[in-house]
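Sequence in, structure out.
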Amino acid sequence: MAPGRADVCRSRGAAGTCAATQAALCKATAGHRQLVLQLGGSADGPRLREERRRRSAEACELSTGLRQALLVGLRQAPVSPEERQELERLWVLFLSALELFLQDLHRAHHLCQLFSVQGGGTAPLRTGLGVRGPPGRKGSRRGGGPVQPPTILCLEEEIEQVRATLAEMESRANIPLWTVEPTQPGGTGGTAAPTAGTARAGHCCRVL
């Protein structure tokens, strides 16, 4: 969010509350992204994976609250056209943040499939795929694949939760994305990382 904009948002009721939650969500997802980038590396281990899970839970909780606040704010009569525009801007930024968060969850899921945590460190995960053996042996064609580790199952639940939130926001808030355009070039500061090539690339947007 641009300098001084937070002060303006605070005076706008619902928009101010949503802006503060959006900023907290972006902080949580940015911290989560940094942890995901360390998966499979020398810093990986049970503590890092637990911290990633905690950050993800924090982001999911914030997104649930922001989703409800934005839907309520967009459905009720706005105090002013400016507040309506601010809520629509925050809605676009929220979708952008969720999409990036979902990408990070998919990346974490992939890395946790590649690397298992063993004895406080990490090692390539032996899936058993392609192993030849008796029909009843794990990993064989007739015996079925290995049981998924709890971390991977947890990530799959997180992915489904974020997908559901995205689907709900896109279906219940009737805001054409083409009506919102960036007012600042990417990389100049804001509440969400840019998504190149779309209206969501700007950190600050305006309604056409």
